[in-house]
Amino acid sequence: MTRAVDLGAAFDLLKAVPMPAVAAAVVTPNGILREEYLGVASLDTNELLTANHAFDLASLTKVLVTLPEVLRLLERGRLSLQDPLSLHLPEAGWMVEPSVGTAKIAHLLAHTSGLPAWAPLYTHPTDRATLLARVLQTPLEAAPGERLLYSDLGFMLLGLLTERLTGRALDELAEERGFVTYRPSGPTVATERCPWRGRVLNGEVHDENAYALGGVSGHAGAFGTLRDVARAAQAWLTDLVSEPTRSLVARPWSHEANGCPRGLGWILGHPTCSGGDLASPQAFGHTGFTGTSVWIEPQRGYAVVLLTNRVHPTRHTGDDIIHLRRRFANAVHAALGRGV
Questions:
Q1: Which residues form the Beta-lactamase-related domain (predicted)?
Q2: E strand segments, 15-162
Q3: If I label 59, which of 76, 210, 221, 267 is the partner at 20 to 30 A Cα–Cα?
Q4: Cis bond before residue 98 (omega within 30° of 0)
Q5: Where are the alpha helices (DSSP H) in the chain?
Q6: pLDDT over 90 percentage in the chain
């Protein structure tokens, strides 16, 4: 039985934040413990935020779509973490040396493949296959396994790998999972007034490269309501993957410059992480550029979800999202103590 807890102090922190829209939830294996919706979905319309509004999840796509699909392939014996990428994508890096084809699946998941963080693919408009072919020939900035370099490009290739091995598109796989979607059909939360596209983005992906890839990519592109993300977090607390797989994912595979450890896909609990200095060492989480985050405490038995549209109407807001994430997570940890 879930014990009674007072999360009021944690949720009170959200009442004065500068973001137009804020949605937050604390989730247990049995469902949502508390949820709250504050603000407006768009400053242009002043439409009140509701449980039906989907947020652009940005890089949460990496851990809510791509990572689970790669792990499903792993558990089904379709690939190994030690497989070089070229075993499954033989065209990977054949034009360059050193080649991303030599990077192992584990390197890509742990952001140690050596690929650069980003590339302006959207400035070379062409079809999706050609853009991904360009990523496959991107020169490495370090040898695989040499150092951590958080890379959107690596998760683009993991998305492509998933599509190649399953024979299905990522958006189809996401729909089958039933948590988040690349094609929101209901109301959505506005993000940035994009100079490149000449409009306020609402219902279309904020990430420029994901947009150039048709809105569907392994690194970004997914949308979800607070309850969608809460259900995905709940699945990570319960039976999304086997316990041995979850333990494998949540052990340190690399470390950021500030000492924060990274697992496979996820950031791991550490005093410097966005999950707060009260997060347990067993915790894992992730953030998204649009103002989203999720932190999961498997041993304590709860997860913390915080969704905002901090980039609306511009990314240059000085909103201090890092501080907000830590304060909210710490307040939840303090309220729940050792768990629920």
A1: 19-318
A2: 21-28, 31-39, 55-56
A3: 76
A4: yes
A5: 8-12, 60-61, 67-75, 85-88, 105-109, 128-136, 152-166, 170-177, 208-212, 226-237, 243-249, 321-336
A6: 92
